[in-house]
Amino acid sequence: MLNSQWLETFTCLCETGGYSRAAERLNMTQPGVSQHMRKLEQQVGQQLVTKSGKSFTLTEAGEAVYRLGVARRAEEEQLAAEIGTDDPSVGTAALACSGSFAMILYPDLVAEMAKASQLSVHLEAAPQSSILAGLVEGKFDLGVLDHPPHRARIEAERIGFEELCLILPASVSENVPTFSSLETLGFIAHPDGYEYADALFSLNYPGEFEGARRLRQRGFVNQIGQIPAPVASGVGYTILPRSGVATFRGRGKLRISQLPKPVRRDIWLAWRRGRTLPGRVNLLAAIVRDVAARLRTVSGAEPEE
């Protein structure tokens, strides 16, 4: 690796055509310029100039080193421009969240990218543990969690909450179905469904509910966007966060039960502690907060502490 200061002195010497003019531009003495030249030639291992009186001619090695000096200066100028300009509409940002939140968030991200041709957004639907690991490793700029991270290297802000919804076929007439009628319908399970059922049913059917794994299961769906589909066809019921229902195209064929004891899950926006977030990441954070605010509006009042 060539010494950057010596290389800049040599590049300036080539541009000015003389030691005295190079010294003046660099605010150096002429002997100082000569010293940088000697050290650079020693580092390269070849003569860079051939002197003729007060003028000089570049050797073949000198021509190559001069081209390197010009290229390196251009790279440094470009780097300085990128660092000095924090344009939120330029660059790449990565965000991870649950699949249901991703479905309601993604249209807003696409709308923002449509306005900013140089903005690239990477959105990944991931489990909570993977989001936390990705934040620590620097894979994700932002993460959306349903609980405070409790990790020293991650900072988080509670930005809202969303309701867990008991989703029934629209043909079901009961606003609050009995537990036996739910068992008759059957549970459309999914990876998070058992956890949701334990949270919702233990409060609303305490005398009859014996645990999610003992529910009558009618089907299992691993694709977040398709979980409500069998319910819309009258096949069973399921439990999803509000964001998992809001984007389903067949919402008219669904009914959200108004259970007496609602369960709401917090929404936390997280990032790596100590990091200064660039403009594009702050832009994404603002979009996430806006989506969380909309979910909070449709999920009802703030839950009691």
From TrEMBL:
GO terms for molecular function: DNA-binding transcription factor activity; transcription cis-regulatory region binding. Signal peptide: none annotated. This is LysR family transcriptional regulator. Keywords: DNA-binding, Transcription, Transcription regulation. Belongs to the LysR transcriptional regulatory family. It comes from Roseibium limicola. The keyword Transcription applies. InterPro entries: LysR_HTH_N, LysR_subst-bd, WH-like_DNA-bd_sf, WH_DNA-bd_sf.
